[in-house]
Amino acid sequence: MLTLPFYRPVLKGLEEVQERLRRLAQEVDDPRLAPLFAHPMEVPGKRVRPTLTLLAGRLTPFGQDKVSLMATAVELLHIATLVHDDTVDKAEVRRGRATLFKLFGPQVAVLVGDYLFATSAVLVCETGHLGVVKRFAETIMDLATGELQEHLSLGQWPQTREQYFQRIYRKTASLFRTAGEAGAVLCGAPEEWVAALREYGYALGMAFQIVDDILDVDGVGEEVGKPVGNDLKEGVLTLPAILLLERYPEDNPILPLLRGEEPEANLARALQMMRTSGVLQEAHGIAQGMLQRARAALAPLPPGECKECLLALADYVVERRR
Question: Which of 59, 79, 106, 241 has the most CB atoms in a 10 Å sphere around its CB?
C-alpha cells in the first residue's frame, strides 16, 4: 500500500506517526488497558489523512515537529471515529479483523473511543496553535453531527442529494479539510496556500466518501474490509441508492427493503440493479467532478514534489478499489 509514489516523501513521517500511536497505547498506568487502546491501531489503513497533513506540512521546511503531532492527531481522531462507528453499527469486522465491539462489547468499545478522542485533542493542543485547536474541535462537532444526521435518516425516503452531500461533508470531508489546512498552517505557509489546502481537503474528502459508497455496492468484501451492501442493509441511503431511487421512484427494490420486506432478496435485487442501471457510473462521475475541483484548488501552489504528490493522491482516492 505505501509503495504508491505519493507516499514516498512522507514515509518517515508516517513511521513517526505509527510509532507515536504505539507509544500512546502502551504508556498507560494500567497494563490491562494497553491492549485495548492498541487494538484499533494495529492494522493501519490507507493513512490518507495523515499523509495529507504531512504533504501539506512540506510546503515549507518549518514547524515539522508540530506537523508530525498534527498528523498523529488526525489519524487518531479517525481511528476513534471508526471505533465508535463500529459500536453504533454493531460491526464485527473492520480491516479484515474482529472489532473492539465484537471482542469486548459496546461498553468497552465506547470508552476506548472516548479515550482516543481525548488523546487526539491533547496532541493538537501540544501544537500550541489556537486556530488549529479550534478547527479540530469544530471537526469533532462536524463528525458527531454528520453521524447523528445519518442515524436520524436511517430507512427514510425521500432524501435529497444535497442532504447527502451535507452529511458526508460533516462525517468525512470535514476531517480531510482540517488535515490539509492544519498541515499548511503549522508549517507557516502563506494564507493563499492554506486556503488552497482547505479547498483541496474538502473536495478530496467528498470524493473519498462517494467512492467508499460506490465500493459498498460494487467492491469485493475482502478488499473493502467489510461486507458489501452493508450500508443499504442498515438503511443508510448513500449516493448510488439515492440516484437509483430518483431514476426508478416506484418499481424499486430499495423501497420494500426499507420497509423490512424480504430483506435478503430485496437487498440482492437492489445491489444488482445499482450495478446494471448506470447509477454507479453516474456516482463515479460526481466523484470525478470533486477530483477535478481538488486538482484545481492546488493551482496557487508552486511546482514541485509536494504539489505532484497531492495531485497523485487525489487521483488515487477516486480510482482506488478498496
Answer: 241
The type of residue at 247 is: R
The closest of 184, 203, 129 to 302, measured between CA atoms, is 184
pLDDT of residue 43: 84
- Asked if 294 and 314 count as a contact pair (C-beta separation under 8 A), the reply is yes
The phi, psi pair for 98, rounded to 5°, reads: -65, 140
Which residue, 166, 211, 264, 200, is CA-closest to 52? 200
Architecture of the domain defined by 5-319: Orthogonal Bundle (1.10)
Residues of the chain with pLDDT under 50: none
Q: Is 155 left (phi over 0), alpha (psi -120 to 50) or beta?
A: left
Contact by Cβ (8 Å): 181, 290:
no
Is the Cβ–Cβ distance between 76 and 119 less than 8 Å? yes
Q: Note if the bond before 227 is cis, omega within 30 degrees.
A: no
**Alpha-carbon separation of residue 276 from 43, 70, 132, 164, 292 (angstroms):** 34, 43, 45, 22, 26
In angstroms, the CA 116 to CA 77 distance is 7
Domain ranges of the chain: 5-319
CA dist 164 and 141 (Å) reads 18
Q: Identity (one letter) of the amino acid at 27?
A: E
Three-class DSSP category at 88: helix
* Runs of H (alpha helix) within 97-190: 100-104, 106-125, 130-152, 161-168, 174-186
Kindly report each contact of residues 101-106 with a partner whose C-beta sits within 8 Å and lies 24 or more positions away, as own/partner. 103/39, 104/36
What are the φ/ψ torsions at residue 153 (nearest 5 degrees)? Answer: -100, 0
